[in-house]
Design a protein that fits this description.
By secondary structure, the chain is of the alpha+beta class. The protein has two helices and five strands; from the N terminus they run E-H-E-E-E-E-H. The protein has one domain.
Length: 127
């Protein structure tokens, strides 16, 4: 899968099992209506079915919607949703790549370091 590996790209996992028979329009509707997000903003949206054997990734690349799908032949994807109806799980692009590879730690603990916040250097005005 080719996705920008940048911290500026935000990845959101849909917070409950999704019906992956849905295509572009159905998943677009889940993002806008259920998650309250703008698909056309360039964020990446991850959906997983109830059995956690298949996932789909929806992203706007600037010219159209892209839909990627993967089905695991063995094992299952990590469970990213909670039973309490929590909000979408936010992932980094690195965590998304690990998730798609089948890493079961994704969503249970932070796998990526916190983003570095760039601060201006102190000015040397006193001399």
């Amino acid at each position: 899968m080719i996705l920008a590996a940048s911290r500026r790209v935000r990845v959101f996992a849909y917070p409950q099992p999704a019906d992956l028979r849905k295509g572009y329009d159905g998943l677009y509707g889940l993002v806008t209506n259920a998650m309250g997000c703008d698909v056309l903003g360039g964020d990446v949206f991850l959906f997983v079915n109830k059995r956690r054997k298949t996932c789909k990734v929806l992203v706007w690349d600037g010219t159209g919607l892209c839909l990627f799908q993967k089905r695991l032949e063995q094992g299952c994807f990590a469970r990213l949703w909670r039973d309490d109806g929590a909000a979408a799980v936010k992932l980094t692009t690195a965590e998304l790549a690990l998730f798609i590879e089948g890493c079961d730690l994704v969503g249970r603990r932070a796998l990526s370091p916190a983003a570095v916040v760039v601060k201006p250097l102190a000015s040397d005005r006193g001399t």
